[in-house]
């Protein structure tokens, strides 16, 4: 019932001139139709018949067929809502786009397709009205895999024993070959971070002097492994009430890249601790880490795939987290601090693809938060 109500309040929306969502109050008939009249709200018909009818409606387009009910009064004419007309017109217009076809060809699970994805072709087309459809082909591929996890992945992932393909949860086909570690010299972000290392260190110290302890565990694995984070950005958003005035240079540099749906911030690793072996199942993201405070000697390292590298102060490591990876701080007395940045793969994805994916992620996040999911993280897609 909750998801259907959310579909009504979030997805039954008007699109303004900039492609944003303007929530509208659903009409009584829309609420009843979206609910499938299966929760005892209708005085007519048995509950058994209502349940059977709701099962037949497996797609959002079915619920938009706002047909007149049985006549309860000959004096009350049926009026189709403007929202229904708009949504249906948009759906028809975008049904032939590559993203529209990706949604239409997806298998329908017993509980029905998530209404969010059914409206996505219309949302993307409205947000990017002048972009040729061909430029969204790989985005459409991502949608296909999101709606049908049984689709095969590319051989470059399946045949690589260091890339656990069964842990992939967000996948864009066609990005080409990759490596565990990538050359940081190819990324302007890495150059800017290294050039501003001294300033970033001073800003980090200023944040430490702030009265509030802002370090937290992003996951239980991080907490148990002695890794805590001062989060500057979460799911690409600024943190409310964070003292960005204490770290203006760091903030400005981080905002030069399309931050992804994870974190950007300072990571601390306790002495004699490490993150256990794992992988992150999103091939659209890369991770950059610059050493801020690193124990002397080769004691703090990260292994990505078959390669192990050591952090150095003022130097960046750039890597692909679809490879299994683990970390260790072997120092018994010194902590290890890095500036951590998750961002969309600007080396492989086009600017339009990145902008479209950020738009999709932001809408998905709003939808999930409305459902009561506080920390969406990797679960957005």
Account of the protein in words:
This protein is α+β, with helices and mostly antiparallel strands. Helix content is 35%, strand content 18%. It has 14 helices and 13 strands. The strands form 3 sheets. Strands 3, 4, 5, 6, 7, 8, 11 and 13 form an 8-stranded antiparallel beta sheet that branches. Helix 5 crosses helix 7 (115-127), helix 6 (98-104) packs antiparallel against helix 7 (115-127) and helix 6 (98-104) runs parallel beside helix 8 (137-147). The longest helix is centred in the C-terminal third of the chain and has 20 residues, at 351-370. It is globular and about 80 Å long. The chain starts with a helix and ends in an 11-residue tail after the last helix. Residues 1-57, 63-72 and 375-380 have low confidence and may be disordered.
* Low-confidence blocks of residues: 1-57, 63-72, 375-380
In oligomeric terms, what are we looking at?
single chain
Q: What is the N-to-C succession of helices and strands? A: HEEHHHHHHHHEHHEHEEHEEEEEEEH
* Number of distinct helices: 14
State the end-to-end distance.
22 Å
Mean pLDDT figure: 80
Instruction: Report the C-alpha radius of gyration, rounded.
Output: 24 Å
Helicity range: 25-40%
Counted beta strands:
13
Structural class: alpha+beta
């Amino acid at each position: 019932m909750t998801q259907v109500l959310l579909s009504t309040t979030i997805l039954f929306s008007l699109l303004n001139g900039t492609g944003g969502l303007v929530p509208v109050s659903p009409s009584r008939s829309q609420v009843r139709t979206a609910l499938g009249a299966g929760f005892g709200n209708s005085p007519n018909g048995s509950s058994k018949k209502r349940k059977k009818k709701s099962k037949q409606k497996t797609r959002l387009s079915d619920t938009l067929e706002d047909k007149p009910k049985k006549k309860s009064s000959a004096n009350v004419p049926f009026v189709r809502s403007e929202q229904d007309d708009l949504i249906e017109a948009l759906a028809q217009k975008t049904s032939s786009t590559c993203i529209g076809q990706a949604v239409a060809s997806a298998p329908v699970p017993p509980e029905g397709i998530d209404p969010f994805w059914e409206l996505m072709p219309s949302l993307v087309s409205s947000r990017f009205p002048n972009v040729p459809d061909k430029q969204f082909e790989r985005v459409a591929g991502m949608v296909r895999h999101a709606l049908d996890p049984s689709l095969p992945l590319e051989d470059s992932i399946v045949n690589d024993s260091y890339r656990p393909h069964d842990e992939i949860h967000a996948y864009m086909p066609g990005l080409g070959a990759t490596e565990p570690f990538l050359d940081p010299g190819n990324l302007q972000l890495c150059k800017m971070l290294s050039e501003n290392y001294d300033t970033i260190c001073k800003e980090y110290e200023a944040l430490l002097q702030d009265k509030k302890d802002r370090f937290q565990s992003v996951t239980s694995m991080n907490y148990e492994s002695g890794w805590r984070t001062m989060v500057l950005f979460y799911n690409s958003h600024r943190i409310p009430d964070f003292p960005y005035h204490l770290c203006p240079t760091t903030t400005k540099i981080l905002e030069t890249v399309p931050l992804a749906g994870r974190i950007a911030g300072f990571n601390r690793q306790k002495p004699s601790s490490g993150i256990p072996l794992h992988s992150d199942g999103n091939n659209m993201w890369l991770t950059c880490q610059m050493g801020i405070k690193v124990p002397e000697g080769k004691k703090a390292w990260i292994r990505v795939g078959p390669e192990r590298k050591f952090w150095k102060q003022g130097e960046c490591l750039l890597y692909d987290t679809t490879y299994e990876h683990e970390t260790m701080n072997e120092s018994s007395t010194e902590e290890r601090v890095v500036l951590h940045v998750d961002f969309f793969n600007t080396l492989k994805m086009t600017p339009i693809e990145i902008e479209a994916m950020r738009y999709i992620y932001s809408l998905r996040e709003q939808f999930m938060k409305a459902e009561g999911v506080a920390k969406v993280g990797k679960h957005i897609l």
